[in-house]
Design brief:
alpha/beta; 2,3-Dihydroxybiphenyl 1,2-Dioxygenase, domain 1; three-stranded mixed β-sheet; 2 helices; 20% helix; globular
Amino acid sequence: MTALARLDHTAVYASDRRRSAEFLADVLGLTVGAPFGPFLPVDLGNGVTLDYYEKRDEPIQSQHYAFLVPEEEFDSMIARLEARGVTYYADPSHTEPARINHLFGGRGAYFPDPDDHNMEILTRPYVRP
């Protein structure tokens, strides 16, 4: 089957777009791009950007973003979270602090960003039925 659609970008609401974009870029070992209109992009390196959009007039609703990362980079990402004093969790409900999971033979962790979006890093994609 040929893919009919590919995600190109998505907007991520943030109370401070620079703070949030720099936080994620730092954790993932990426860079923040140049502003594009009201957006501040983080290029994920696979043709997809997260375009941070500042929204100050109402509360930010927490969303979930999952990132498939190289196994050899996972420990560095966890170390960057620890250096920032950010607690990571083995589960999406954040009940298992300072632990990782081993789903599908890989490693994974969840962590909050500055606006409490539930971010996830995983080294193996989920096995879908």
